[in-house]
Specification:
The protein is of the alpha/beta class and about 140 residues long. It has four helices and four strands. The structure holds iron/sulfur cluster.
């Protein structure tokens, strides 16, 4: 049995699903939804919840012609470094809005190309995450 046959046997190709890149998806963006709603939704996460974190790194060394990801090509690290500083501020903001007793159960980095980050920048970013979030058992 090939890998594709095996995936078929799991039913992976039996349903059409939307391409999922953000929450809420772009077709649910509306002018009446803003920062206050966002803050309220985060603050409403139950105390003790296990949360997942997705860090979007929207940069690539060059763009592939077939790509539909929200990313941009860059020849220098200057915009990347500036973005990471803003992302760390966002991590702080989200953590401050969440109830105290939440724990991080999943961490996902996507893009773009997360490996565009230098080891030092990746360390800085992940240190911020783990300084701010306690990890759930089994993380
Ligand atoms: S996200 Fe991946 S596929 Fe898209 S442009 Fe970057 S490297 Fe290419």
């Amino acid at each position: 049995m090939t890998h594709i046959d095996q995936l078929h046997s799991y039913g992976l190709f039996d349903a059409n699903a939307p391409r999922y890149t953000s929450y809420p998806p772009a077709n649910h963006f509306a002018a009446g939804v803003g920062a206050d709603n966002h803050a309220g939704w985060i603050a409403a996460v139950p105390t003790g919840a296990r949360v997942s974190l997705y860090l979007h790194i929207p940069f690539c060394k060059r763009l592939c012609w077939f790509c539909a990801c929200r990313t941009q090509g860059t020849k220098t690290m200057r915009p990347v470094e500036a973005y990471i500083d803003t992302l760390m501020t966002e991590i702080d903001r989200v953590r401050d809005l969440l109830p105290h007793k939440v724990s991080l159960s999943r961490l996902h980095l996507g893009g773009g190309t997360p490996t565009i980050l230098s080891p030092e920048t990746m360390t800085k970013l992940l240190t911020r995450v783990f300084d701010r979030f306690a990890t759930a058992k089994g993380f």
